[in-house]
Model the fold of this input.
Amino acid sequence: MTSSSRGTIPAVIRGGHCQGPNSAKLRPRHGITPLHKMQAAALGGLLALIVSMPAQALTCMQYIEGRCVSYRSDVPDRPSPGGGARSTASYGAIAYDRGSHAWGVSHNWGNRARAELEAMKKCGEHGKDCEVMVWFDRKCGAVTSGNGGTAFWGLGNNEGQARAEATKKCEDGGGSTCVMQAYQCSH
Done:
């Protein structure tokens, strides 16, 4: 039964169809129109694009007065489409400002120049005297700071090796308070 402003109008449902005085409004549509097909294809394409996008996480590396001023990007390696050889986009860089301790990292770029440019852009968001400290191709890099505005870099096949080399250079250079500023891999 349905109700209207004129009172109650009986309606009978038979075989999936509503029969009654206003049944034309209540009948379900049958068939898929070309518009429905286009909408479904567009939605499917959008979902496929979203699923294929890599997740990106940022880890705060340094807080000053309760505010994060330095981040590290944690993006997993992506296999190439079809599971074949990895992409040639494998350059990364770390830029650092010795005065403000601002830094910027980049990874998975097609050439050294672009990797350095992206690292400088990110560093420049928080520092004014940024310089590229290290670049790498299918490796990991790290930057530590020592006493009096000194900075040291390291390279390695993994994050641990790069961090250890940068720390050792800092300690060998007389740094008594070596601080890891940034590290990044690009494989």
User: Anything to note?
Assistant: The mean pLDDT is 73. DSSP finds four helices and twelve strands in the chain. The CA atoms of residues 89 and 109 lie 5 Å apart. The first helix runs from residue 23 to 26.
